Amino acid sequence: MKLGIKSPSKTLNSEIIIEENSAKSLSNYAKNHSKVMLIADQKVFGLWEKSLQEILPPNTEVLLIDAGDQAKSLETYGKLLKQMLEAGCDRRSLVVSFGGGVISDLAGFVASSYMRGVDWVTIPTTLAAQTDAAIGGKTGVNLDHYKNMVGSFYPPLAVLIDPRFLKTLERRELSSGLGEIIKMGFAYDKNILKLVDHIDPENPLGDKLDQASALSATAKVDIVNQDMYETGQRKILNFGHTIGHAVESISLDTKNPLLHGEAVAIGMVAETKLAELEGVCEPGLAQTIIAALNRFTLPTQISGLKPKEISEIILSDKKNQASKVLWTLPTGVGQGIYNHEAKPEYIQNAIEFIC
How many helices (H) and strands (E) does the chain have? Predict the structure, then answer.
């Protein structure tokens, strides 16, 4: 399956390829580049090194990263830029990312700023990255505990999605990715949820997951086509992320940090409860979302966090405007609104609902 993102600027086009062995087409994008710089998740690279050696051009240099969320920092970003300079990369070099969302966000930001921008290609290896993070051109790093506070819109030449890479994922990572797929279903396309209903929670891999993943990716392409720079419709994808990013940021200092999809799951529950309190959706939708998340053992509450901590981070969210927190909320299954300003007491109640 091949999809295309078309944006107003000819310099912001990506080709999305979803098929077995799609990574083999890397050579089509690497030709005519002076050097290829592969920025990869150290663990995932080790698992797939033999397969990668068959597709990487001879002019490739590999930079390996321990790809925990702590890697999405200005420090790591700066080190990668220096390594590219030391490797002799010029403006005709190609950056290739291989890993999950952390790697694609980081490598894309490096590509967007090295010598004012070089080409890049991403090969996402996690379900969350294949359905969301690697699609749409958002790149960036965290600023201290504030998620994705520094970055750019810089789509790659191509997103090469190969379902084979999911075979080495741990069950928790698969569930995390399903959190993003479920988000897309509730926020934008309820047909995604019909496919999710047929995925076996005990053995998620298979045709139904592939179909749900492809439909979710297609939905994101459709949204990005309408709104590349998140000035309107693309904000619908922020469902679950305002509170989700807050609890994810706080959890980074704990012994068991949340994965992104897990944090989004908790955020969806809180923000749907907020939608109920605000009267923008029917009562009971939060319980419907909780039931969908519970099938895949995704968290719907978080213990050990104080509501005040969450509120403080929300006030610094990058999506805010003029010090106002603007919410993306569901109005029903497969539809929602954005730029909604909620009552402070309802926000507090929604946060308490998941603590």
Answer: 13, 11
